[in-house]
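Hey, resending since the last one bounced:
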Amino acid sequence: MLGDRMIGSFIGGQVLAEEPNLERMRVVAKEIGVDEEAFLEAAKKVQIIPKAAIDRSTSFIYEFAGVISNMAFKSYETIRLAELSAKQKSDFLANMSHEIRTPMNAVLGMAEMALREEMTPQAKEYIRQIRASGKMNIVEVVYEPLSIINSLSNIVNTRIGSKKLEFTVDFDAKLPHKLYGDNIRVQQILLNLLNNAVKFTEKGEVHLQITFDEIDSETIMLKAVVSDTGIGIKEQDFEKLFQSFQQVDSKRNRNIEGTGLGLAITQQLLKLMEGEISVESEYENGSTFYISLPQKIIDPAPSIPVPDSDLKASLIIENEFVLRQVCKDLSALGIKYTNLEEHGNLESVTDGYIIVEKHLFGDRIKKSLADNPKLKCLLIAPFESAADINMPRVKMLHKPVFSLGLYSALGLGDNLAEIGDSNEDNFRFIAPDAHILIVDDNPINLTVASGIIEPLQMQVDTATGALETIEKVKKVKYDIVFMDHMMPEVDGIETTHIIRRLIVGYEDVPIIALTANAIGGTKEMFLREGMNDFVAKPIEVTDIVAAIRRWLPKEKIVPITEHEKVKKSEKKQELVIEGLNTQHALALLGSEKLYMQILKEYYMSIEKRAAIISDMLQKNDIKGYTIEVHSLKSTSRQIGADELADLAASLEKAGNEQNVDLIFAKTSDLIADFLEYKKILAPVFPDVEENSSQGSANVDDVMKLLGEMTEALDEFDTLLVDEAVEKMSKMHFPDNQKELFKKLKEAAETTDIELCSEIVEEWKKLI
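The structure tokens again:
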């Protein structure tokens, strides 16, 4: 049984170990009120089996039942949907979740070849079923649109990286709270479009707008618009956009023109869901993609309820894209605002909120906060910005700023404490003995959450789903479990039920929900379901740290005094390495541990990267050379190798300008300076063995990249395919692998997923 649902059963009969006692049978017949003769006849028909055989059979049934129960329970933990058939002892089928992404190209290819071979009709039918399972199936579930937006925000900002590019989100607060549809496919569609927008836009804005139209009381038309300020598309190339294996131009000509990959797949998925896609674009002036698809309404309540509020805000925002979106969202939330750049000055603001970009948070604003106790401040910080400002009445909101983030940060959501009530002492502690678990189905969300709380020095484990969570809590008694609310198949609430009911010692362990739906009644709902509290997404450092302080055992909290903070800061500044501006690098990264990790990776790659740069020059591949010195410039700047970074920057400029004379004159100096850091950093990392490969491809590295490529192909994630090919292009392969890489690169450029899979499998067999 799974709850009140029967999955399978054993139907048993009666046997005896010896001949029945007929006199005793007559007595029994009288006791139960049945015909004696009929009862005796039935008793005589019972099969007589030796006791040893009975013991073997019952032992087998016991063990077999245990196996089935274990399978059902594991399935319940992971995908809720577990169908076990016991009609025949040898035939058990487990339905696969849509979370196992299809099509699995290598399997399908082998199935196709197997069908050409001689085999029994039954075996052929099995192979046909395998082939049929590779279709793009649509699996509809109940989901919250806000969860999709939160995941997309993290992924897109991570992929923007160091580009001078702003990602903004315009989410209609009135969109129904819960919908019914294939949320995995919806997210995949939006991610394909956003990936392309980021890929072909170097500066300006990538914008996602989510709205809807009511079709009837049970259905909406969900609408999404993805626009960018990128390189655009020529009108004559529009018809190529959604054709399979077609590109407007090679993806390597990114600075000239292009549309990206995955649009044919996107259109296919939308057709399967009765949706549509269209595009508008002006060459060299950006593109806009429009999608619409019908979705059923499960909960018509608005995703973000507009509160009755008399809040007012004063804005100090330079970025035009952020300013536009903040103004629109504040209006949607019913909050009056004033743009201080246009109307008024800071001295006139004595209460309400100052919403300011982090880099503009200076002495004037700090003085206003000190002089006006009713004034609060909301800092808009870059996505990757460290939470390094811990002041009363000041809260940080990471980009992208949209309605949900403002709703939570301004204290409009349920149980979101006023900023003015926060205690600065809540954030002056570490907890090195604490052990916590963070659960989220999105790996990037896990990275964000783990990074935010890294300064607390806790032991942090992560899990991406119910099964992994259950396995970890069986082995470790965590002090706190942060549980993602909306996970595929088995959500956070159901996982909490399993933990509370079945894991010994977890009756009272704090389980805190991570949710993108921090609206009225949220906390009460989680408390009813066995959780202790919740933290709203997108996660803000003040919220999660306050929750940790509130629920962590008091004996594991170690307060930090101002004196200790100063000592810690001074210790960081003492890090001195010849030829490196470590102080500036630490200021950029905010973490000595992270700096040393990056420095070690830099050190281990010196010989390989130097060899690649030399090779590019010898081949007169100026484009490839420019890409490599650009990368060297960035990483050198990151570790504080400023002079080397400056030289790489000058050679990057020379590459872009095709100044070959300067390149040939200065590259030897660049290589020499670069290799010098091998000697400088060797004493810092004595445990790192010398790399004698001189830039050649390591078998383990190649297998890892081929594994990444396989996953990307299975998921139709064309951006990851590009990234894997890009990494491979920096490797030196033996002669017997060079031709395979050339074929793989060409197949990836034409989006031939099936051919890519075949080449990857051939390559794996070769090495």
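The longest strand covers residues 287-302.

Sorry for the duplicate.
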